[in-house]
Design brief:
Layout: H1 8-60, E1 64-68, E2 71-76, H2 82-95, E3 99-107, E4 120-127
Antiparallel strand pairs: 1-2, 2-4, 3-4
Helix pairs in contact: 1-2
Length: about 130
């Protein structure tokens, strides 16, 4: 009959080594799980941060800001400096990378300001579909 597979001293060493490896791998697994959870929160926070930056840029344009689930609309009833207003509307696209320009109008017949002979501007952005 063959003898034991391990000598008593080496069996104890093997069990301790395997237990240490198990604890090490469990710790690595837990760390990766926590890391993925934190990265998921960071991505979600980044989306809300991006929306906040976009809304901040829209508010800085002045006028009436309307936020909808589909996007946003900015109406300037009196665009005194048309170049600046056009530049602000172009910059808004840079501050809102997850939105596209769906409507733009600048002139005497755009919005409420045009009725009084004033140049008005209307900008509508909609969210890009995934």
């Amino acid at each position: 009959m063959p003898g034991p597979l391990f000598a008593p001293g080496s069996a104890r060493t093997a069990c301790i080594a395997l237990t240490a490896c198990g604890v090490l791998f469990a710790g690595i697994g837990a760390a990766l799980h926590v890391r993925s959870y934190l990265l998921g929160e960071a991505v979600a926070e980044g989306g809300s941060r991006s929306d906040g930056i976009c809304l901040g840029a829209a508010r800085r344009m002045g006028g009436e800001l309307t936020v909808t689930p589909e996007g946003l609309r900015v109406v300037l009833p009196d665009a005194v400096d048309q170049r600046t207003s056009l530049t602000d509307a172009s910059g808004l696209l840079a501050f809102c990378p997850d939105m596209t320009l769906s409507y733009f109008c600048m002139g005497l017949s755009c919005g409420p300001g045009g009725l009084g002979g004033k140049v008005s501007m209307q900008v509508e952005l909609t969210r890009k579909s995934l």
